[in-house]
Amino acid sequence: ASCVQYRLVVRDVSTLQILQLYTCLDQIQYIEWSSDSLFILCAMYKRGIVQVWSLEQPDWHCKIDEGSAGLVASCWSPDGRHILNTTEFHLRITVWSLCMKSVSYIKYPKACQQGIAFTKDGRYMAVAERRDCKDFISIFVCSDWQLLRHFDTETQDLFGIEWAPNGCVLAAWDTCLEYKMLLYSLDGRLLSTYQAYEWSLGIKSVAWSPSSQFLAIGSYDEKVRILNHVTWKKIIEFEHLAAVANSKTIVYKEVEKSPSAETERLSFPPARALASSLFSTQSKYEVSQVPVSLQYIKPAADRANPKMGIGMVAFSPDNCFLATKNDNIPNAVWIWDIQKLKLFVVLEQLCAVQSFQWDPRQPRLAVCTGNSKVYLWSPAGCISVQVPVEGDFQIVALSWHPTGDSMVLLSKDNFCVCYLEREEV
């Protein structure tokens, strides 16, 4: 699904043929599929309206108007039959049921980066709350939205919450002004508190491993710390240094190569798509000789939100690898071997890394750097792929299909679908 101003376009993934075209009341600012892909939510925050469309019954539609309360966020519940709307100034969360036409209210939700978290099985929801100048967490049962537990947290300014994939432990972390990671059980007991240091900028990024055995914490001191699920103590600390000295680490460096073509094999004028890929600058990876010095950028000390520390952390689906990005070294992606707890690979790009995401089915990482190329790494090697599109197509984000057979590449105004050939087993 994609939106063009007030139109919602639903396409077939394999052919990109338009299957449905819906017209909303205003310009769409957010879209989200229900978990079973039968409904699509379209939020128009400026108007305080959410419209829901059905793929099975194109004539059916639903309109939710929050009225004077306004709207700042909207999302599906895991069952795909309830919609959670957050009103302006975070006064409340309204839970709308598509089946029962009933409404539930959750008061005092906190305005923070990650204030709502669902367990992977969809049974429970945790909500960060702020009342009487204190932080709280409420845990609800998603089947009937009844309150299961309500407890206060030992935080100055709660910044985010996230469930472990097995749904047994809830991680809650403080604002970047104080390094504090809190781990709670389902019944609200504080299992452990982790604090690496004091009096400096703290946690910047957090990621659970798919097996729930590890919790990776990226911080402003350019390090990633891995906690284990038995004692919740640190088992390893990964430093992101500008100098890569270990001879066992593979450094792939992106290098540009001038476009070369056998003129006798070309028809002139060449097709437009072919011409754009032929005469744009190509790139490839070369293995650098260690030691390697990476480009290090010192952040401006007098600016807000300094570009420093570990901004991105993600585990591979098989738990074997961890990909990270240090914002002080914006052109590099670090890939760590979790079984050996060592640095395995560094990808040194020509441009700053915008985004990366693991293939949901195998250890294959896709990276984009704001140009018209997508980069793929797997334990077998690393490739740079030129996207054959007309004009200037700068990829700023990407998203894998759940099967891992294709991915959507997004630029500021356009998108394209990249199909990957599945290896024969």
TrEMBL record:
Name under which the protein is recorded: WD repeat-containing protein WRAP73
GO cellular component, as recorded: microtubule organizing center; MWP complex
Organism from which the protein derives: Eurypyga helias
